[in-house]
Every structure is written in structure tokens, then in C-alpha cells.
Amino acid sequence: MVGTLEKDPREEVLQAWYMDDSNEDQRLPHHREPKQFVSLEQLAKLGVLSWRLDADKYETDEELKKIREERGYSYIDFCEVCPEKLPNYEEKIKNFFEEHLHTDEEIRYCLAGSGYFDVRNHNDEWIRVWVKKGGMIVLPAGIYHRFTLDTDNYIKAMRLFVGDPIWTPFNRPHDHLPARKEYLQSFGTTQAGDHAVDTAA
């Protein structure tokens, strides 16, 4: 078809949209009406980076190796989140969904299943990022975010880190932390990432 832009392959494993204000089950999609999608380029303007990789060959994947070398991700481990595998599941899921930030990047590579990473934009609106098998996402230090499973109730993820891992969450508000101030200096000056894409357009 003439003039058709080639689809970004990441969109098959990563999708993002503005969330509604409903208090329904956190594992539901929570689309606005009409749906308002957010592009991966808009996410990048918030500091959220993403890749599509081959989750079936993560042990030998040269692309993953290259990303790790370029970004200094020396540490990896694996985490399965589901009622059968995670001790104190209900408490952990509740903690994950508490709005917080970290003083380092949060890097997750989905090897199986799927889940939602919610991030705040510059206008303090929630953007829901759905990460599926093969999707890798980096949340910058200092961004307010939270995590939940979707209705399939399962994700297996690789966790990556620069050096020794520090998973400490700082629940909102923690605006005084240097990581938060640095995030706002780096990514908080533009409103360009906040325009929604109306699917009816």
C-alpha cells in the first residue's frame, strides 16, 4: 500500500495508553473512552526505553548481550510473578502497585506472560504500558511508577541492573530525592510526550 509506514516491531510486544480513573480491578486494561494510545516515541520522551527481543533464545541472544554491554547491565536474575510461585503473593502485588520511584533504572525483560507497568507523565496522568513476551522496558531512575499483572495472572521476567542490585522503592511523595530532581531536569521540561493519539482520528 502506497504511503504506509512500516510498523515498529516493538508494538507487537509493547503497547501504551492513557488510563481511566476507575477503581475497578487493577488487572483490567483501564482504557479511556475513547481509547487514547501513547506511542513508543512518546514514552521515550518520558525516559522510558524499550526493545523487542527473542525471548526464546535469551541465553545466546547477541542483541541482548550488546544492550547489556552498552548500558552496563552486569547483573541479572529472574522473577516469576503468579499466585503459585510468589510467596506472600497478595501482599507483594499490593506493594508493587503502590506508586513509587527508584534511585536507579528499573529494567525488565518479559520472557513469558505479560504485565502492566504504569508510569506518570509530565501532567501527572497515568500511562499504562503493557509488556508481553519479548518486550524489554527500562524505566528511568526517578520516574513515579507501579506494576501489576494483567488478568492472565502470570509473568516471568529477567531483572537487570548495573552493579549490585538495589530494589528499594520510595513511595510517593519522595520529590526531595536527587534521583527525582535529576529525572525532572532530564525529562520534565517538555510537554511533547503528553499528547494522546485518539484511535478515532
Helix content: 10-25%
Shape: globular
Instruction: Report the C-alpha radius of gyration, rounded.
Output: 17 Å
**How many strands?**
12
Bin the strand percentage. Answer: 25-35%
* Uncertain stretches: 190-201
Distance between the termini: 20 Å
Helices and strands, with pairings:
Elements: E1 14-18, E2 36-37, H1 40-45, E3 49-52, H2 62-71, E4 75-81, H3 89-96, E5 100-101, E6 106-120, E7 126-132, E8 135-139, E9 145-149, E10 155-161, E11 170-171, H4 178-187, E12 197-198
Antiparallel strand pairs: 1-7, 2-12, 3-8, 4-10, 5-11, 6-7, 6-8, 6-9, 6-10
EC number: 1.13.11.54, 1.13.11.53
Protein name: Acireductone dioxygenase
Pathway: Amino-acid biosynthesis; L-methionine biosynthesis via salvage pathway; L-methionine from S-methyl-5-thio-alpha-D-ribose 1-phosphate: step 5/6
Short structural description:
This is Acireductone dioxygenase. By secondary structure, the protein is α+β, with helices and mostly antiparallel strands. It has helices spanning 40-45, 62-71, 89-96, 178-187, and strands at residues 14-18, 36-37, 49-52, 75-81, 100-101, 106-120, 126-132, 135-139, 145-149, 155-161, 170-171, 197-198.
Polypeptide structure, described:
- The chain is globular and about 40 Å long.
- The chain contains four helices and twelve strands.
- With 201 residues, the protein is of the alpha+beta class.
- The strands form three sheets. Strands 1, 3, 4, 6, 7, 8, 9 and 10 form an eight-stranded antiparallel sheet that branches.
- β6 and β7 (126-132) form a beta hairpin.
- Helices cover 17% and strands 31% of the residues.
- It has helices at 40-45, 62-71, 89-96, 178-187, and strands at residues 14-18, 36-37, 49-52, 75-81, 100-101, 106-120, 126-132, 135-139, 145-149, 155-161, 170-171, 197-198.
- The longest helix has 10 residues, at 62-71.
- InterPro entries: ARD (IPR004313), ARD_euk (IPR027496), RmlC-like_jellyroll (IPR014710), RmlC_Cupin_sf (IPR011051).
- It is found in: Cell membrane; Cytoplasm; Nucleus.
- Its cofactor is Fe(2+); Ni(2+).
- GO terms for molecular function: acireductone dioxygenase (Ni2+-requiring) activity; acireductone dioxygenase [iron(II)-requiring] activity; iron ion binding; nickel cation binding.
- Ni(2+) binds at residues 100, 102, 106, 145.
